[in-house]
Amino acid sequence: MARRPQPMQRSTGTAAAPARSGASPRPAATAAENYSGALGVLVTLIGLMCFALPTFIVFFGGMVPSWVAFIVDDRRSPYRLNVIAACNLAGVVPYLALLWSQGHSLAYAMQLLSGVYAWATMFMGAVAGFAILWVGPHLAAIFYNMDAVKQRQSLDVMRRALIEEWGPDVLPPPEKRVPDKKPATATVGKGAGEQKATSPTEDAAVKEAR
């Protein structure tokens, strides 16, 4: 005897939606990178203090601007800190090499740090890093502006060539044209024959085509 098929039960519940994490992973990754870098520097300093005290004294004293930049900078941008620390280290390395070549003694390390020129050289390296961070964006803006001007000139030449080849009909309607830096707002004529004046560049190109 065949069994009577049982009616299918409808599922009233809905599938659980996957949990969405509200926090963005990028800031967490950046913070982890900063903390890992700080931990690496701390371990290096502890190792130098234990096994190479003269090097630690000169290195720690000369890199004071980098420590201050790391503490004061609220953004904790790794690029800013890398530039400042690299330039600061460039001013410290010559005195580290001088220390290593003169026997690597604690007395000579203190003698190096007692000189005004040593502090000036090491701190001027950090100042050079700050100068690069300040001047760099301005130089980049100047180069980008020059590149934009060259591209505009080349596009203007291409537009003139198109107008000379195909005539002024290739130009868009006056109401759809992109104005120049100083668009002409004057009108020509009155009443039904009123027309907006085109830009000087387009007028010159149209005259040459005619």
UniProtKB/TrEMBL annotation:
The chain crosses the membrane at residues 41-72, 79-97, 117-144. The keyword Membrane applies. The keyword Transmembrane helix applies. Residues 1-25, 167-210 are annotated as: Disordered. Residues 174-183 have a biased composition (Basic and acidic residues). Residues 10-25 have a biased composition (Low complexity). Keywords: Membrane, Transmembrane, Transmembrane helix. This is Uncharacterized protein.
